[in-house]
Amino acid sequence: MKRVTLQAEKREVSGKGGARKLRGTGRVPAIIYGNEVAETLHIAIDSKVLIHSVRPHEAHNFIVDLEVDKMVYPTIIAEVQQDPVTEEPLHVDFYRISMDKPIHTTIPIILSGSAPGVKEGGMLEHTLREINISCLPGNLPDSIEVDVSSLNLDESIHVSDLQPPTGVEFLTELHDTVVHARRPRLITEEEAAAAAAVVEGEAAAAVEGEEGEAAEEKAE
Question: NCBIfam families from the entry (predicted)?
Fold first, then answer.
C-alpha cells in the first residue's frame, strides 16, 4: 500500500478569484472533509510537491497524510480538478478517514499473462478496468491482478472468479465480466459484396471525375 505525507497550510476562503491568486503563487487550493472532521478545512499545498506525489492520471488508491498546523490528517483523494490543457491540478478534495473504519474506494484491475485464446487468433476484451472495494485503510491494495494465462477462446473471467486480498471485500456485482477472449467476427458474403460494391462505386466516381477534368481542359 502506497502512503505519502504532504505539508499543507490553512487558507482563507475567498472564492474563484482567491483560488486563482493562490495558484499564481505556486500553491493549489484544497479541502479536507468527511465524517471524521468537525468542519471542512480549507488548505493550500505546494503545486510542485503535489504534482510529484499525486499524478492526475494515477489511481488514487493510497493514503495521503496531510500535516496541517502540527496536526496529521489521514485522507484519501476524493477528486482532483485539473486544467484540461496543461493537466495541472486546480483543486483537490481530500476525504478524512479513520484507520480503524472501513472505506469504500475504487482500484484498478491489471491483467497479467498471455491468453491462449489470443494465440488462437482471438481478441482480448478488458471490459472491467476498475473494481469497487471495501476495506480498512491499512489493507488497501494498489490493484487487483488478474491472470489470463488460462483464458481460451469464448471464455470469460468474472468478478466472482477473483480472489479478494485478505481484508478486502468486492462491492462490484459478482456477475460482471472482467475480461473476455472474443472470437474474431467472420464477414458474411453479403457484407463482403456490399463492401466490394462501395469500393467499385468510389473507383468509378474517381474515373468519371478525372475524365470530366480532362474534357474541360481540352475545351479551354
Answer: bL25_bact_ctc (TIGR00731)
Burial of 158 (0-12, 13-18, 19+ CB in 10 A): middle
Q: Are residues 79 and 160 in the same domain?
A: no
Q: In the listed set 98, 120, 146, which residue is the last one of a domain according to the structure?
A: 98
Which of the listed residues 98, 121, 141 is the one where a domain comes to its end? 98
Dist. CA 48–CA 31, nearest whole Å: 18
Q: Residue type at 179?
A: V
Sheet holding 123-126, edge to edge: 123-126, 177-182, 156-158
The domain of 196 spans: 188-220
CATH of the domain at 40: 2.40.240.10
Distance CA 154, CA 121 (A): 11
CA distance 106 to 94: 15
| pLDDT tens-digit series, residues 140-169 | 998 999 999 999 999 999 999 999 999 999
Does residue 17 share a domain with residue 66? yes
Q: Report which residue type is found at 132.
A: N
Percentage of residues of the chain with pLDDT beyond 70: 80
Chain mean position to CA 61? 11
